[in-house]
Write a structure and sequence with these properties.
Blueprint lengths: L9 H33 L2 H37 L3 H36 L4 H16 L1 H16 L4 H24 L4 H25 L15 H33 L3 H37 L3 H38 L3 H16 L1 H16 L3 H21 L4 H4 L2 H30 L12 H4 L1
């Protein structure tokens, strides 16, 4: 259902919009948790560790491609907010062309560099073969996941977050079923988990294709709308590339941190990855609100209503700070019991997981500010400053990882250090950006029509 986010209470609209996204993400997380438990129980803890050791590389390549494609959808929200429904069809076609091109390029690069990159990361030798096998199959599924990312982002840019929820629920449940098939019924080892992801991603893409073809006339392009548009291509790339680079730069920092962690042995790798399971659950809330703010800001920018962006950011910040406190309390009293689901009663692994989780959640207020302000910046087309956020995060993680590689306790603070530094940067940048927008629209009542990377927003 298409929803206009430029009218009505910003708080109610954001909460209503994000509710479906959170449910979808939560269910996806539950399914992924189930998959991890199945791998640990039916294959081995080494298989679970191998998947976790490869996750920073997978995150780097996935974030580069997924965030780039998601950036294309910012333009969809801006054009919808501006009322340019005819241009949306041509935009939809050009976004699909670029998505396919990005998929082919990233997939080829991923397969070529996978094993050398894992070796460079000091991946434990006992994990190396399993991690490589798992990753290569995941790379082949990227065409399905990226096309689904494009369609899901376009629907959300139009205010529809429920369709993605339904598709996520179905494909997530299918993923568990496929994993049971390939891990238990047909025991393929660690590759079974990857083939389960492959099949469920293909199913998800097919469902999105059906919805986009049959239900979304506003994005359904015909032959007359399918032509290549250099103007739209440049505009899509101006939004997508900086955001893809920003996400991948953050992932590079995670890889460097993972290298330092790998040097402390298999128990540390497994313990930290176990602590990260619950941490990923908490991140769902903040990332969900960041995405909601992105699309909310994009539509209101297109409609020329920056004052609504200010209200939406303020209410989202307060809500997320409250959620952060709840997450910290939950980590203190419940975290260890959740960790037992993955590693049983292994006290050494549990202690590592607990310490890692508590260190991260204690600094959630800074991560809340980072996600909230960054979401508004992205939706307003201020992509270069978003890229600068990634650079700041990278520098922070590298400094901690390189100079304190031998001190595991200090390594726990690599992520929080990045959040603190980036939130300080955004605390200075965000108010300036919003004031500039308000002055612009006060002087010119017409909605913003383009996202010129050389214009005022990118120079903010």
């Amino acid at each position: 259902m298409v929803r206009d986010l430029t009218k009505g209470s910003p708080t109610k609209l954001i909460l209503g919009f994000v509710a479906s996204m959170l449910v979808a993400s939560m269910m996806s997380y539950v399914y992924n948790m189930t998959d991890s438990i199945m791998v640990g129980q039916f294959v081995s803890t080494d298989a679970l560790g191998a998947i976790s050791a490869a996750s920073p590389l997978n995150m780097l390549l996935s974030n580069l491609s997924v965030t780039t494609v998601s950036g294309f959808c910012i333009v969809t929200g801006q054009m919808f907010g501006a009322g340019d429904k005819k241009g949306l069809r041509n935009l939809s076609a050009n976004a699909l062309y670029l998505t396919v091109a990005v998929t082919v390029l990233i997939t080829v690069i991923s397969i070529v560099i996978c094993r050398p990159a894992l070796e460079w990361m000091n991946t434990p030798v006992s994990f190396l073969d399993m991690a490589t096998e798992y990753m290569n199959i995941i790379f082949l599924a990227r065409i399905f996941s990226l096309v689904s990312t494009l369609f899901a982002g376009q629907l959300r840019a139009l205010g529809d977050s429920k369709t993605s929820l339904y598709i996520s629920l179905i494909s997530g449940f299918a993923n568990v079923c496929f994993n049971f098939l390939f891990l238990v019924v047909i025991p393929l080892g660690v590759a079974g988990a990857a083939w389960g992801t492959f099949c469920s991603a293909a199913l998800g893409m097919l469902m999105y294709l059906y919805i986009m073809w049959k239900k979304m006339d506003i994005l359904h392009f015909g032959r007359e709308d399918a032509g290549l548009s250099p103007h739209l291509i440049r505009r899509l790339l101006a939004n997508g590339i900086p955001l893809g680079l920003q996400a991948s730069i953050v992932s590079v920092g995670s890889i460097i941190l993972q290298i330092a962690v790998n040097g402390h042995g298999e128990d540390v790798v497994t313990g930290i990855s176990t602590g990260g399971k619950l941490l990923n659950l908490f991140w769902i809330f903040f990332q969900g609100f960041e995405s909601a703010l992105l699309y909310f800001s994009a539509q209101n920018l297109g409609a020329g209503k920056p004052e609504r962006i200010r209200k939406g950011v303020k209410s989202t910040l307060l809500i997320n700070l409250g959620i952060g406190v709840v997450c910290f309390v939950f980590a203190i009293f419940v975290g260890r019991y959740v960790h037992m689901l993955f590693v049983g009663g292994n006290e050494a692994l549990l202690d590592i997981a607990d310490q890692y989780l508590l260190t991260q959640t204690a600094f959630f207020p800074f991560m809340v500010m980072l996600c909230t302000w960054r979401g508004a910046l992205k939706g307003c087309g201020s992509t270069v400053p978003a890229l600068m956020c990634g650079i700041i995060e990278l520098i922070s993680r590298v400094v901690v990882s390189v100079f304190f590689a031998d001190n595991l306790t200090v390594l726990y603070f690599a992520g929080p250090a990045a959040w603190v530094a980036t939130s300080i940067f955004l605390a200075i940048l965000y108010p300036r950006m919003l004031k500039k927008l308000e002055k612009k629209f006060a002087a010119d009542s017409a909605p913003l029509e383009t996202n010129d990377p050389e214009g005022a927003l990118s120079k903010t």
